[in-house]
Each structure stands twice: as structure tokens, then as C-alpha cells.
Amino acid sequence: FVSGIVEVLEKRLSALLEQIDLGESVKYYIGEKNLCKEFESCSMLVTAYSVRGQKGAIGILGPTRMDYAYNTVALSMVSELIRD
Questions:
Q1: What is the 3-state secondary structure (H, E, C) of 2-70?
Q2: CA proximity to 59, closest of 48, 70, 73
Q3: Is 78 helix (H, G, I), strand (E, B) or coil?
Q4: Long-range interactions of 16-24: CB distance < 8 A, separation 24+
């Protein structure tokens, strides 16, 4: 199970994240609205960051019944800490 998730993350998700405009706010992909059909039973929270001019994405992948408020704040704080 875990190796399948890692494979999807390495091969497909990074390419999909490059195609969307993340901005500085947290974006939510829940259930069927997820970027990858393999994650339809999960939720994903994603935001952008930049370190030394290099842009990237940081996120949380978890169950659809996660604590969205807590995870949004946590993700925002981590993103701010690692930004230039």
C-alpha cells in the first residue's frame, strides 16, 4: 500500500502540482475532487513556498475526516517558516 502511494507521489503528483496555480493560500482537494484518482479516499491540503528563489509545494495528505482547521494553520505556519 505505502509503496503504491510513494510511486504516485513521485511520478504523477509532482507533475500535477506544477500545472496548478497554488499561490500563498492553502488549497483543498477532498475526495473525488482530488488531483489523483488514486487519492479519492483521501484529502490533500497544498500550498506554495519559496526558498532561495526555488519554488515548491508543501502539503498534507490524510483522511477525508481530518481536522481541516488545525492542519490548515499547521501547513500555513510551516510554509511561512521555510519561505525566504
A1: HHHHHHHHHHHHHHHHHHCCCCCCCEEEEHHHCCCHHHCCEEEEEEEEEECCEEEEEEEEEECCCCHHH
A2: 48
A3: helix
A4: 17/46, 17/57, 22/46, 22/47, 22/48, 22/57, 23/47, 23/48, 24/48, 24/79
pLDDT digits (tens, 9 = 90+) for 36-66: 887 888 898 999 888 888 888 889 989 999 9
Name every residue whose Cβ is closer than 8 Å to that of residue 69 and which is 6 or more positions away in sequence.
Answer: none
CB atoms within 10 A of CB 59: 19
Q: How many CA atoms are closer than 13 Å to the CA of 30, on its beta-carbon side?
A: 8
Query: Beta partners for 50?
Result: 55
- Do the beta carbons of residue 78 and residue 60 sit within 8 Å? no
